[in-house]
């Protein structure tokens, strides 16, 4: 069976694209690698942040929904996003940076077996910086020299992603028996699964919790995408997921990658997305994220689309 190589990207909801842009570029020091639109609803921005080229596994993406309300936190949702930094000293740097920039944060602690610093963005999205202990990361990750953060403490990419669900066992079954994730830890109502044994860049933390389901809004997570190599592999997964008993949305060409979507039994939305062709298919590395990029099938509607969007610097 093919193995999942790790996270591809994760997609959230923001109410205000300009403020979101400021936080993820100026505070977190990530690069905006693509300013585009939601291909299913071109009236809203789709913003991507990541490393130099938006490499798979580094991408944080946001749909701008100006009418979004507040999130009512609950179960059956993706509840925390881990971001890897090189060392423990990096966490000390970030704690001081958050204090200077008035970012809501906690104290240094442990999370998923690693030194950690919990924080929230300006819309309440829950994130955590994780000490990678100078461990291996995917070779394609390349930090961006234009970052506002000093080189040795820059965010490397995505780490553990937390999912809070009513049934731990059903999600664990999907990860282990459908996708081949390996169990790294389990105790009572919490488990950690890894797509690559011993590595945080493909890690999923499951927390079992009853109660009402989350009502999504600004600062909530819409879905997580996991990596597949190419279109041929995606089509094999398409069949395997259906054979496993899930209903799959049709394979869609997103121009920057191909993907499919399905919901597991708790309602968590998974996307499987191909590694390529990537964000440089219509941009040079130097010009990534500077202008509004549209896939070819939307290019003829550019003037109409631009007229409906508030400018983002």
Structural topology:
Layout: E1 7-14, H1 17-27, E2 31-38, E3 41-50, E4 59-64, E5 77-85, H2 88-100, E6 105-111, E7 114-120, E8 126-131, E9 157-165, H3 168-178, E10 182-187, E11 190-194, E12 203-208, E13 221-228, H4 231-244, E14 252-253, E15 257-263, E16 269-277, H5 296-299, H6 302-307
Parallel strand pairs: 1-4, 5-8, 9-12, 13-16
Antiparallel strand pairs: 1-13, 2-3, 3-4, 5-9, 6-7, 7-8, 10-11, 11-12, 14-15, 15-16
**Sequence of strands across the biggest β-sheet:** 2-3-4-1-13-16-15-14
Largest sheet: 8 strands, mixed
Query: Radius of gyration, Cα only, in angstroms?
Result: 18 Å
Classified by CATH, the class is Alpha Beta
Q: What is the 3D shape?
A: globular
Figure out the total of helices.
6
Q: What is the count of structural domains?
A: 1
Round the mean pLDDT to the nearest integer and report it: 97
């Amino acid at each position: 069976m093919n193995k999942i190589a790790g996270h591809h990207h994760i997609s959230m909801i923001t109410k205000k694209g300009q403020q979101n842009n400021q936080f993820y570029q100026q505070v977190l020091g990530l690069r905006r690698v693509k300013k585009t639109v939601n291909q299913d609803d071109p009236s809203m921005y789709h913003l991507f942040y990541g490393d130099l080229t938006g490499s798979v596994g580094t991408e944080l993406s946001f749909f701008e929904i100006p009418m979004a309300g507040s999130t009512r936190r609950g179960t059956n949702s993706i509840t925390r996003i881990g971001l890897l930094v090189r060392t423990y000293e990096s966490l000390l740097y970030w704690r001081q940076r958050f204090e200077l920039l008035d970012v809501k944060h906690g104290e240094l602690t442990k999370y998923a077996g690693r030194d950690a610093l919990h924080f929230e963005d300006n819309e309440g999205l829950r994130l955590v910086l994780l000490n990678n202990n100078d461990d291996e990361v995917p070779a394609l990750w390349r930090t961006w020299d234009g970052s506002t953060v000093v080189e040795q403490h820059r965010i490397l990419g995505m780490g553990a992603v937390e999912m809070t669900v009513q049934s731990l066992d059903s999600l664990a079954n999907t990860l282990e028996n459908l996708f081949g994730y390996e169990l790294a830890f389990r105790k009572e109502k919490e488990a950690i699964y890894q797509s690559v044994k011993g590595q945080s860049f493909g890690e999923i933390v499951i927390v079992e919790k009853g109660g009402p389901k989350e009502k999504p809004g600004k600062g909530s997570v819409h879905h997580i995408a996991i990596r597949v190599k190419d279109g041929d592999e995606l089509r094999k997964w398409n069949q395997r997921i259906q054979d496993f008993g899930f209903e799959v949305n049709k394979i869609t060409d997103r121009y920057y990658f191909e993907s499919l979507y399905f919901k597991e039994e708790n309602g968590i939305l998974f996307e499987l997305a191909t590694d390529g062709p990537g964000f440089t298919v219509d941009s040079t590395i130097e010009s990534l994220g500077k202008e509004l990029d549209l896939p070819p099938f939307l290019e003829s509607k550019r003037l109409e689309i631009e007229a409906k969007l508030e400018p983002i610097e």
